[in-house]
Automatic annotation (TrEMBL):
Gene encoding the protein: nusA
Family: Belongs to the NusA family.
Organism for this UniProt entry: Flavobacterium enshiense DK69
Chain ranges of the Transcription factor NusA first KH domain: 202-279
Ranges of residues in domain NusA-like second KH: 285-346
Keyword Heme in record: no
A Pfam family hit: KH_NusA_1st
Keywords associated with the record: Cytoplasm, Elongation factor, Protein biosynthesis, RNA-binding, Transcription, Transcription antitermination, Transcription regulation, Transcription termination
Keyword Protein biosynthesis attributed: yes
Protein name: Transcription termination/antitermination protein NusA
Highest taxon of source: Bacteria
One annotated GO molecular function: translation elongation factor activity
Length: 414
């Protein structure tokens, strides 16, 4: 009975872990053979018959009959008198098969055997889990928030697998509660000891690229190609797209009517501002498009230094630089060129212009800094802007902006 009871308990692993029958039998045989080696010194002369489905197991020890007093190896040989206790008609030289009961291995050996089995099954699970998620690297995955920690969010998928979303892989505006469903890409799988640690990311460029594949049918079908993605997570992103079919407008297809297609992606990324531009192999045109929404007058490229001078009218400079310098930074990353903005404008006006820092006795330094972040560092460059546009692109209140403009206008009126 003890054999059946033990195998029944082993069969629980098959149900819990969904291990296939062949694999379970192989693991069980390996575990039992290790136990036999410890008990008898070798397992070469043992046959193990396991049937997990029926819940039974048999271990047979095979020995050769030798004359009494001539036994040299008790594991592989049996004396004639001992053999005849099993069957009275055995003769020297014949093979004897004798069943070994688990109880003969000893209680401690059985406990160790069970522990060894648990270890082997966990090892098998971890190997399979590692392989499974290695194949998913770069793919979008959804899991549920199980625990929120200061440095990471711990997620659990439908199969109970634990996935880690580190703080630095989260979008700054991300806020999670237990039970929330979270989407990201599987960025990496690391072995910590024998246990795989699955890392998810929501800040990776690959995540945005995969969202385009999921949300835009033409990208999924391969009619539109995502050539490159650059991001400042939670703030701004630029995506270059192309199509080999002249009948398809790749930007229009990705954005959709009134932004209907891209809206879901923007919402998923915490309202990250996404510029979709047409890819081109014409470097000058590519740089011009990358600096959208600014209108570029001309571009002078230095291929050796991988840099470009971009000429813009005064009123376009702040648009090219963008809030916090994000627009020009992403344009440089997208095109692979270091971009230097050159102002074009009325010479008389430029000579008459005044640096904003000259007004530090009337305008707070942090306010001047806010204008500088979007490329506005002179009085005339600020006065040329639309107030509503400045409210949108800076962290300044409308009242503050109007007050600054009043101060600057007074300078020129005087």
């Amino acid at each position: 009975m003890e054999n059946i009871a033990l195998i029944e308990s082993f069969s629980e692993f098959k149900d819990d872990k969904l291990i296939d029958r062949v694999t379970l039998m192989a693991i069980l045989e390996d575990v039992f053979r290790n136990a036999l080696k410890k008990k008898y010194g070798s397992d070469d002369n043992f046959d193990i018959i396991i049937n997990p489905d029926k819940g039974d197991m048999e271990i047979w020890r095979n020995r050769v009959v030798v004359a009494d007093g001539e036994v040299e190896d008790e594991n592989s040989e049996i004396s004639l008198s001992e053999a005849r206790k099993i069957e009275p008609d055995f003769e020297v030289g014949e093979d004897v098969s004798e069943e070994v009961k688990l109880i003969q291995l000893g209680r401690r050996a059985i406990l160790a055997l069970r522990q060894n089995l648990i270890s082997k099954i966990h090892e098998h699970d971890n190997t399979n889990l590692y392989k499974q998620f290695k194949d998913l690297i770069g793919d979008i995955y959804t899991a549920e928030v199980h625990h929120v920690r200061p440095k990471a969010v711990i997620l659990v998928d439908d199969e109970g697998n634990e996935i880690v979303l580190p703080k630095e892989k989260q979008i700054p505006s991300d806020f999670f509660r237990k039970g929330d469903n979270v989407r990201g890409i599987i960025e990496n799988v690391e072995l910590k000891g024998n246990k795989p640690q699955i890392i998810m990311s929501r800040t990776s460029e690959k995540f945005l690229e995969k969202l385009f594949e999921q949300e835009i049918p033409e990208v999924f079908d391969g009619l539109i190609t995502v050539k490159k993605v650059v991001r400042i997570p939670g703030e701004k992103a630029k995506v270059a797209v192309d199509s080999y079919d002249d009948r398809i407008d790749p930007v229009g297809a990705c954005v959709g009517m009134k932004g209907s297609r891209i809206h879901g992606i923007v919402r998923e990324l915490g309202n990250e501002n996404i510029d979709v531009i047409n890819y081109t192999s014409n470097t000058q045109l590519y740089i011009t498009r990358a600096l959208s929404p600014a209108k570029v007058s001309s571009v002078k490229i230095d291929e050796d230094k991988k840099s470009a001078e971009v000429f813009l009218k005064l009123e376009e400079v702040s648009k090219a630089i963008g809030r916090g310098g994000h627009n020009i930074k992403l344009a440089g990353l997208l095109t692979g060129y270091e971009l230097d903005v050159i102002r074009e404008g009325n010479i008389a006006e430029e000579e008459d212009d005044v640096e904003l820092t000259e007004f530090s006795d009337e305008i707070d330094g942090w306010v001047i800094e806010e204008f500088a972040k979007i490329g506005l560092d002179t009085a005339r460059s600020v006065l040329k802007q639309d107030v509503a546009d400045l409210v949108r692109r800076t962290d300044l209140e409308e009242e503050t902006i109007l007050d600054v403009m009043r101060i600057l206008k007074n300078e020129f009126e005087e």
